[in-house]
Amino acid sequence: MEPRLVGPGPYRATRLWNEIIELFRAGMPLRKHRCHFKSYERCFKASEAVDCLHELLGSNQNFGPEVTRNQTVKLLKKFLKNHVIEDIKGRWGKEDFQDDGHLYRFPPSSPLKPYPKKPSCGKEVIKFPDWNEPKAGTSQEHIPVKSVTMNSEMWYKRHSIAIGEVPACKLVFRRELTQTNIEEIWKSMTLSQLQKVLGLDSLDEVLDPKLVNSKHIVQNAYNVNKQGIVTLEDKSKELPHWILSAMKCLANWPSYSDLKQPTYSGFERDVFKTIVDYFGQMKEPLLTFHFFDVFVSVLGLLQKHSKAVEALQISCLLLPPENRKKLQLLVRMMVRISFNNDLPPLSESVRTRNLMVQAFSRCILCSKDEMDLDELLAAKLVSFLMDNYQEILSVPSALKSSIEEHVVHLQRVQIKYAGADTDATFPPPSFCHQISTDEFEYQRATGSQEPLAALLEEIAMNKEISVKDKKKQLKQFQKSYPEVYRVRFPTPETEAVLFPEKNKQKPPILMWALKKPFQPFHRTRSFRM
């Protein structure tokens, strides 16, 4: 039986459990063994089971080479407890499996876990507010039309369509978006994007949307400091000062000066143990019990690096702000300790990075129901989280921009004229109401005269356009709105005032230009000698 990648989706942990059992039963060599002068057929030693299962998990792309031998032993203990295996005398039910020479065998059939049935949460993640629904108590009759204020440039750009006879239209008035509305939009679009990244038809089986707090999403997206760490409004939920000091001490070793330098050997191990004990006594993991299935589903995307990072970005945005901040600080400390060559070894037998994963995996991710693969799944997630923590624990910029643009769009009122390629946009508030043709004609006649007259006056008095363009615009206005034009220019003479004829002054005729060309002097009779 070939191992296969178990992708994201409902009951991923259960599917992995069942697959590992089938692979282990198919791949574990069985042979004859002797114990206390007695032979036993088709059985195996405990150490042989550890070797086989450890190799199987390490080569399985759902788990990978990060799985340790100690984790494999813990999994075999759970196999014994759940009657996946039994000792040669048929005993099972306890977690007393050891990595030694005791003999074990498979029962006739190893029980596979059934898939639990969860109540459906509905296909819709969240219902968008009905922006077209008027406020309670708002009359639907005789809602006045807001006049359109246009300058000459805007009017001229689209006069050929919009300035003509405007047909009856639907006036859109929308509600002003409250903070609650914006938070609901953030929640809906965030969950929708998560569902898209996971490639699921529905989030029903991995997440109950009712447990997602929209306020948490908005706070995680906007209440951050320069380092991208969440800032909490409730300071009582901050990490204790002494824990922060201990974390900084190890993360910045040996340069951190808030504590006195150690005076005894093993000081750094005592500080580390203090941190482990604090996070280990938490009643709920940082990723919370509610989101366990979501994060386990994300593990199915680790082969697609960019999608896995995006899915974890969005999933971590759902966390309570205090959990998100603790996670950011803890993972950052874990990474710094792992790369700090100046820090003395915190364990004699385990490498520092593996120690970080083993020490903090359970306080980051675990199931409320004590799932059998909790430790392996948590170790896989924490390893990936440490490798990509800067991206994963930052606010997804693409999602944030998309939601902000959508909110801005909802806060605008747009009226599209038939055939026009541009909109007249008004500021909120806004509602939707359709009026009759008679009501529209009445409103157009009474409500549009003043702005049109102002527009005509602006065209007439505009000195920045050429005379040719001004005449052209006035002619177009007169054709579309003859009544308004006639009020402003009742006679041709009033229109002509805008274009006074310039008297062309002819250049003065010089007296010498009228004289005949020079001719030689001729004596006349009056000049007789």
UniProtKB/TrEMBL annotation:
Residues 201-393 form the Rho-GAP domain. Pfam families: DEP, RhoGAP. It comes from the Eukaryota. The keyword Transit peptide does not apply. GO terms for biological process: intracellular signal transduction; positive regulation of Wnt signaling pathway. GO terms for molecular function: GTPase activator activity. Keywords: GTPase activation. This is DEP domain-containing protein 1B. It comes from Haliaeetus albicilla (White-tailed sea-eagle). The lineage of its organism: Eukaryota, Metazoa, Chordata, Craniata, Vertebrata. The gene is Depdc1b.
